[in-house]
Amino acid sequence: MASTAPDASQDQESIKNSSIKFRSVKTLAESPELTSIPSSYTFTTNPDDELVTDPDDDDPIPVIDYSLLFIGTPDQRAKTIRDIGRACEQWGFFMLINHCVPKSLMEKLVDQVFAFFNLKEEEKQEYAGSKNVTDPIRYGTSFNPSMDKVKFWRDFIKIIVHPEFHSPDKPPGFRDTCAEYCRKTRKLGRELLKGISESLGLEADYIDRTMNLDHGLQMIAANLYSPCPQPELAMGMPPHSDHGLLNLLIQNGVCGLQVLHNNRWINVTSTPNCFVVLVSDHLEIVSNGKYKSVVHRAVVSNKATRISVATVVAPSMDTVVEPASELIDNETNPAAYVGMRHKDYMELQRTNHLYGKSVLNQVKLMGVTDMLISPHGAQLTNMFLMERNSSVMELYPKGWLKLAGVGQYVYRWIASWSGMNHEGSWRDPNGDHCPYPEDDRRCMPLFKNGRIGYDEKHFADWSRRVLADITTRKIHQASTINTTLPPSTAHCACN
């Protein structure tokens, strides 16, 4: 009989009885008995969305010569800045050549990362276990196992290297190599952002200054994609975009990166001495949507181990990232994204399922949302993204009034603190049946996870009333703005 994946229950029991906090993909892939992947790693794709191609000669991946920003003629520099802007707008990424990071240093870092993943599992797991996005060093697997419905064929180590430098103590030489590489890529990222600022028509130091990059977050995310016996069923990382401004990516010569361009997945080759520069979510926000963070994914192979090292160049953790005021016009180009602290954005990403631009779209949507109807607690985070005077209504499951205690008033408290309008509640009288008395605490999980019905007439009447109030309020606000505008400068006596 053919061997299959190790039994999951036995695996969990062995982990429980050891210092190992989780089983890495590397350990699983190296199991002699492994011939098929566990069902928890099976990633289902939509065949209609699976058009994968190599780059088209008529629409090639943009290549930017970094050196022309500094040693080129004025015309060459101006053209390079235009090319960067075009790449950010049309592709969301580009290949960077002739940069300031030595090829030998790039290769040395990849070797050190490989050496880290080859340490004994007990040594690596000294850095495992935390879910805090601000922890200086985190070793883990998948993306967020507590949230992932499907596990991803990937192990990682994430290291915060700025504003304070951190590094694992092992393997020997890792710290020194990482420190030198991070200094080089930090300078590279900041110089690129100056060119990107200019391409948006902003001052060269605009992004650097407003994103507080002197104290900005820089993170190294090193990924190990072990050989997979069924690569057609697994996914290294699902389609996603990154937090931060830029992601500077290098690879070990093994392909696996794919980017979404014009509804096709484009294979991106692993080119020596070349950075793949990915536009990230916060740059899309700063540009008010002109530049697009790129959706990308990592596929796996049954033959080779792939390593990628991403350098995240990001705002300081306390910076509120919002569209550049110089790019906004309330009439023709209003702000498309609500301002949000970088740290809060990272936490929102951690607590959401990773797929596409789910978090960025959430921030974009809630910035223009006037009314939220939500099961109690289900959309609590979104209230922090909505504007003052927005409206919220709650749907309570059966039994909540008796069992939830003061927690049932959290929406009212947040609405009061944030200047929102709490427009009432509706309690489902016909929820799932509980075999115990309805005030028994054992009913709480059943009511909490059960279905919530709705009263069509109640919601229709409520929505009609609230939308009418919103319309009236906006008309009043518009008339107030018009009557308080300063007189035209054409009739102004200038001193």
TrEMBL record:
| Family the UniProt entry places it in | Belongs to the iron/ascorbate-dependent oxidoreductase family.
The protein's matches in Gene3D superfamilies, at most eight in alphabetical order, are given as: B-lactam Antibiotic, Isopenicillin N Synthase, Chain
Q: Which organism is it from?
A: Stylosanthes scabra
Could you tell me where the Acidic residues compositional bias lies? Answer: 47-57
Presence of keyword DNA-binding: no
Q: Which keywords does UniProt give here? A: Iron, Metal-binding, Oxidoreductase, Vitamin C
**What domain of life does the native source organism fall in?**
Eukaryota
Q: Region Disordered: start and end of each range?
A: 37-57
Annotated Fe2OG dioxygenase domain ranges read 215-315
Can you tell me which residues the record assigns to a coiled coil? none
Protein name per its UniProtKB record: Fe2OG dioxygenase domain-containing protein
Does the keyword Glycoprotein belong to this entry? no
UniProt cross-references to PROSITE patterns, sorted A to Z: FE2OG_OXY
Query: Polar residues bias: where?
Result: 37-46
- Tell me which InterPro entries the record gives: DIOX_N, IPNS-like_FE2OG_OXY, IPNS-like_sf, Oxoglu/Fe-dep_dioxygenase_dom, Plant_2OG-oxidoreductases
One Pfam family name from the record? 2OG-FeII_Oxy
